[in-house]
Amino acid sequence: MRGTSSFLIVANRLPVDRVGEKQWRRSPGGLVTAIAPVMQRRDGAWLGWTGAAGEELKPFDHDGMHLIPVPLSSMEVEFYYEGFSNATLWPLYHDVVAPPIYSRVLWDAYRAVNDRFARAAADAAAPGAVVWVQDYQLQLVPSMLRKLRPDVKIGFFLHIPFPPGELFMQLPWRVELLEGLLGADLVGFQRPGGASNFVRLCRKMLGVSTVKNDIQLDNGRTVRAEAYPISVDFGELDQLVRESHVMARAKEIRAELGDPEHVLLGVDRLDYTKGIRARLKAYGELFAEGRLKPGEAVFVQVATPTRERVEEYIRLRNDIELQVGRINGEYGEIGRAPITYMHQSFGREELAALYCAADVMMVTPLRDGMNLVAKEYVACRHDLRGALVLSEFAGAADELKQAYLVNPYDVDGMKRTMMAAMQAPPHELGRRMRSLRRRVATHDVDRWANEFLTALES
Ligand code: ADP
Ligand code: G6P
């Protein structure tokens, strides 16, 4: 049997998450931020999990997208999603900033769920369809799908970093994962380094020959590995922040914070790769040393709940909440807390207003595939004010060279850079922001998707 979708996105998650019986809300994370606008402008279907265990739903339409749910049992949520995806691959691919767990039980679940996604994609794809598989949770899908449907074009994009060989080689299932990816016609990475790590590993582990970024397989097929840095919907954000109610809300936020001289902002999923601990440590030390005074600066840290049953995430939440309490307890005054911490998700408009209210945007991950928050901040600052402090270890640092770049492991360096960003004269901020905006405006998410899909189809 053949399906009817000539364009298919296959991702672990659907763009919406279940809240209560009948309501949906946008799923967390950068993948959805980037792919949703691309999908809304094309005909096709999105195949993925609803975020709830044991739920079997029929395909449905939502917000201009056709969605095809793939069910996961509660055991699969534990072993495939929380386990192999987020306790094995996620830490390993992010420079082992937390120790990865290697377990055969988790691997078996990963393989079984990838097989289910491949079968669902094979059923939904029309003859000759373009199928675009997303991210680390589904690295076996390209080869599984190719076996079932040799007629379709298969693209794969990895949203997170692809690690250097020395780390990847730890994986007991390294050969299977490389072979899984080689089922695709085109494998996309965030940075050129990810693509070359992958090509080198294929040569070394599988003995295939390669010419630049082309991998030549024994069966005569060629697979291309290339970098396509992902981006945001610049136009949509740029328009949104020009609306009077968003501008008014930004002013209101500053007033609610007590109109401090400096508002610093962090917006992240509460993930140990995001460098929240070191960022708050640096900020706290500025108070301890008297370089900042209560009432003079407020740090707003928005931390979206994420992967809340995975051990490392439970530990991180406890650490951060203790740290926030300590800094506020030691350096705050009545009505003047140095940190406003929120463990919540916000709507797009509130987030945009927060970006406009912030003088200094702190994006300091220890490792990040791209980091779309950095690009969203830039897209929201048509007033050319505001400073972006950006980790050298985020993919975005390749493009956003006029940001205040920092090494997130260097607490003193971060303190110096935060002070420099707070004290920079308006003409300096304007010069940097103008150049950052030029980059994001001309390299938005539509360009990213068009470049990838054109290369895939050619
Ligand atoms: P990741 O994909 O690792 O979460 P990114 O920075 O690439 O990191 O993407 C995060 C996305 O999630 C951005 O689009 C950002 O706006 C959104 N986001 C992060 N925190 C929140 C929050 N508290 N409320 C709503 N959206 C959020
Ligand atoms: C990152 C990953 C995505 C993931 C998102 C949210 O952006 O690259 O694949 O969907 O984080 O994480 P979650 O585990 O909630 O899907």
From TrEMBL:
One Gene Ontology cellular component: cytosol
UniProt-listed GO biological process terms: trehalose biosynthetic process
InterPro entries xref list: Glyco_trans_20
Gene3D superfamilies membership: Glycogen Phosphorylase B
One GO molecular-function entry: alpha,alpha-trehalose-phosphate synthase (UDP-forming) activity
Annotated signal peptide: none
Domain of life (superkingdom): Bacteria
Family: Belongs to the glycosyltransferase 20 family.
Classification via PANTHER family: BCDNA.GH08860, TREHALOSE-6-PHOSPHATE SYNTHASE
Name recorded for this polypeptide: Trehalose-phosphate synthase
